[in-house]
Design a protein that fits this description.
- The chain is an alpha+beta fold.
- The protein has one domain (18-335): Sandwich (Jelly Rolls).
- The chain is built from 8 helices and 13 strands.
- Strands 1, 2, 3, 5, 8, 10 and 11 form a 7-stranded antiparallel β-sheet that branches. It has a 4-stranded antiparallel β-sheet with strand order 4-9-6-7.
- β12 (315-319) and β13 (325-329) form a beta hairpin.
- The longest helix is centred in the N-terminal third of the chain and has 16 residues, at 38-53.
């Protein structure tokens, strides 16, 4: 019989500072510089270069013809949804342990991995107008959070993110398109907006609410920086007006104890689609999926990424000798009820 060594974390756990935790709660977003190592970002950049050149292809995503010009190849790709379901490298970055370390601090300890998007944003490609991500990806309770990894330097010229600090306290505004049912419609006086995500402020009526804050800030980023942002915060990006690309890998997550009635337009059974999404960290009473390419996470390595260590001894609030209430473990099993 061959004994194998127990699986262990292959990285030093990243710990979020109190200052950063406060900043996320205060502003609705947080940029952590250099969270992902340069050599890892370079691998992702090379993968997108190979796709653009026709040397690599994600199954199910049409590739440009072999004789396509550079301009034609750029038009072929704008964004790719859910590549982690067809591509090992995308699953690996969705479940990147340092990214999930931050998520564990912000929404954890249970983290469910929901979505990936690969943005190419080549010169001349459009941005996306004001929107709230929780409108598109509902979670119940709403614990949605995005993680935006810069592959290229992102600045004002090539279409970086713009965030509206404080807008995370806003409800999710329903769209009056008559098709979707998302949004906080139970609020008595909430007004439906129109054309969220449209880049034209005169068309996208969510812009009127966002611009009332008067404090929109650009979030420039370098390769390896990750911007975390809550599902309610107003944000947008502008057209890439430079001659440089602005590639980014974007993932979405929620607390694994939230119900997720969403699966990127794909059918699912029951009232929620949690069984279609991967348990990245912690435990949950709800169903979840396994990673298709075996990336270590709580779903397939619970002894490493599962429940946080605890002695599981039942504790009670008791008064100490100074009159303060403290947690005291039960000494006798007969008291554990």
């Amino acid at each position: 019989m061959v004994l194998t060594a127990p699986l262990q974390r292959s990285h030093e756990q990243f710990q979020v500072r109190v200052e950063d935790y406060r900043a996320f709660r205060r502003d609705g977003f947080l940029r952590i510089k250099g969270l992902v190592a340069p050599e890892e970002v370079a691998e992702l950049a090379q993968f997108t270069d190979d796709m653009m050149a026709g040397r690599r292809q994600i199954p199910g995503i049409p590739a440009p013809p072999n004789d396509a010009s550079t301009a034609e190849r750029r038009l072929c790709y704008e964004r790719i949804h859910m590549p982690h379901r067809a591509c090992e490298i995308a699953e690996r970055f969705l479940l990147h342990p340092r990214v999930v370390d931050v998520l564990e601090a912000l929404i954890g300890p249970e983290v469910l991995a929901l979505q990936t998007m690969l943005f190419f944003k080549q010169p001349g490609q459009a941005g996306q107008g004001f929107h709230q991500d929780s409108y598109y990806i509902p979670t119940q309770p709403d614990t949605l959070i995005g993680a935006w990894l810069a592959i290229d330097p992102a600045d004002e010229d090539n279409g970086c993110l713009w965030m509206t600090p404080g807008s995370q306290h806003e409800p999710i505004y329903p769209d009056c398109d008559g098709v979707t049912q998302q949004g906080d419609t139970v609020l008595s006086d909430i007004e439906a907006i129109k054309d969220a995500s449209h880049p034209d402020e005169s068309v996208n009526t969510l812009a009127r609410i966002a611009l009332e804050y008067g404090n929109e800030v650009k979030v420039a980023a370098q390769p390896g920086d990750v911007v975390f942002f809550g599902g309610h915060v107003f944000h947008r990006s502008h057209q890439n007006g430079s001659q440089r690309s602005r590639r980014a890998f974007v993932s979405h997550y929620c607390n694994a104890r939230s119900r997720v009635p969403w699966n990127h337009g794909l059918p699912y059974e029951g009232a929620a689609a949690n069984q279609e999404h991967i348990l990245a960290r912690g435990t949950t009473h709800l169903p979840y999926a396994q990673p298709r390419f075996g990336t270590p996470c709580a779903a397939n390595a619970p002894e490493v990424y599962g429940e946080r260590f605890d002695n599981h001894r039942v504790k009670s609030m008791m008064g100490d000798d100074n009159g303060f209430m403290v947690l005291v473990p039960h000494e006798d099993a007969e008291h554990d009820h």
